[in-house]
Design brief:
Largest sheet: none
Strand content: under 5%
Helix content: over 70%
Structural class: mainly alpha
Number of helices: 4
Length: 152
């Protein structure tokens, strides 16, 4: 496999792992431990559990896919600035999860909020988006540094 192909697999796999990890953390922390919300709130408890189950299944598939792509990529150290690409792409993936989930589910579709029923629900939603933006920007800075330092 060429170094270019390894770089692409490393970036894609890391992105998927970051996306899936933040999805898993969202499900574990907000859905299960804190029990603040489910994917679909306006349904029966059984419906909430099922919607969360489908969410966890999708997140698990994403994590498995990311792991397989990273396995195909090989060792990050085989690629110039591979570790930085891995970290940057992982953070970008996590940030994209938070931004997409927050914008689509919390604001556009309004199927749930981070902490529904709380008088400060909007602040929780905005904090969720801020964390996503922070992860994305940190990842982008690391990723750009690694890309700009790349020597063919």
């Amino acid at each position: 496999m060429t170094v270019q192909a390894k770089r692409k697999f490393l970036i894609i796999g890391s992105f998927l792992m970051g996306f899936g990890t933040l999805g898993a953390l969202d499900g574990i922390i907000f859905h299960q431990l804190l029990q603040w919300h489910s994917v679909v709130m306006e349904t029966t408890r059984q419906g909430q559990i099922m919607s969360d189950g489908f969410f966890h299944l999708a997140v698990t598939i994403t994590l498995i896919g990311g792991g397989l792509v990273l396995w195909i990529a090989g060792k990050p150290t085989d690629v110039t600035r591979g570790v930085q690409l891995l970290i940057g792409s992982f953070l970008i993936g996590g940030g994209v999860f938070n931004l997409l989930e927050g914008i689509i589910n919390h604001h556009l579709l309004q199927i749930h909020r981070v902490k529904p029923g709380d008088p400060n629900a909007l602040l929780y939603d905005l904090g969720f988006l801020a964390i996503g933006l922070g992860l994305f920007l940190a990842g982008y800075v690391i990723y750009r540094y690694a890309r700009n330092s790349y020597v063919v």
